[in-house]
């Protein structure tokens, strides 16, 4: 498809491929927020817990074929609820596109993929929280404003 | 403490107590949103999956001692991330207070409990999404506005 002919491929992050992608994942996530040291032990522990809970965590990478580098990353966390008759809600989280590849539509392709994954898993809605400055981008991906995100930091 | 002398108690929802509380849980959740039929099989399946993933789901009930009924319910879903050095984020979800007991401060007590639980588990932040009309309530619980919630409904 479009992505492939442009030289990129979607890859599920897993226990076998994660160390190979570690540096470019850190680099890409640092375009979103603080990543920290993230030593191999911590990195592998997170990925292993995600893999053990595959029905909940779904981390997806956009990889540049020629360099083998991760250019974008994101996940959809699938939450099981009592409301809506034991319904599922998909939470799209930690969407990052590397600054070196902004403006190529890779974020939108990743979002469409994660949205479809949530729909296929049966989510009655898919939500995300973002900065005011990213609202327009998510509107282009089919999302609408629906509430206020509030936070408490210890 | 205050809650107890007022005739209420905090209870963790689990595989042993859930059927006893089912009717009043449905009644309380229906003050928040659509609950649906929620037959015993579906209800037990959700609770069992929550119990199997205790490090992620933390459903808490406020029970009225004299009647044994659930008056308020809520959860904190603990998400493991790569960002913030393998950090944890607490998502407060599905907070409902029965209409019959609004205005007694039970929602605030529940929120404080869930917030503390998130802090104890090491969350670097605790977030929630709410309607504009509930922003003032969550401000009283120590939360601040920080972003926009966006949704996609298939
Ligand atoms: C749609 C999307 O990707 N939203 C992200 C959220 O998933 C991420 O966890 C947060 C990190 O910010 P923080 O470092 O301030 O917690 O930023 C944005 O809200
Ligand atoms: C803090 C809090 O309790 N927020 C709830 C959220 O957890 C719940 O899932 C949603 C249900 O609404 P829905 O039925 O439209 O999905 O309502 C509110 O946003």
Give your account of this protein's structure.
The structure is a homodimer of 154-residue chains. The first copy, chain A, has helices at residues 2-5, 18-29, 40-52, 83-86, 106-120, 135-140, and strands at residues 8-12, 59-64, 69-80, 88-97, 123-130, 144-152. Chain A has a single domain (2-140), classed as Gcn5-related N-acetyltransferase (GNAT) (Aminopeptidase, 3-Layer(aba) Sandwich), CATH 3.40.630. Chain A is an alpha+beta fold. In chain A, 35% of the residues lie in helices and 32% in strands. Chain A has six helices and six strands. A five-stranded mixed sheet of chain A has the order 1-2-3-4-5. The termini of chain A are far apart. Chains A and B meet through helix 3, strand 3, helix 4, strand 4 and strand 5 of A and helix 3, strand 3, helix 4, strand 4 and strand 5 of B. One 2-acetamido-2-deoxy-6-O-phosphono-alpha-D-glucopyranose sits between chains B (33-34, 92-95, 128-130) and A (83, 125, 147).
Helix content of chain A: 25-40%
CATH architectural type of chain A: 3-Layer(aba) Sandwich
CATH class of chain A: Alpha Beta
Residue share in β-strands of chain A: 25-35%
SSE run of chain A: HEHHEEHEHEHE
CATH superfamily of chain A, please? Gcn5-related N-acetyltransferase (GNAT)
**Gross morphology of chain A:** globular
What Rg of chain A, in angstroms, do the CA atoms define?
16 Å
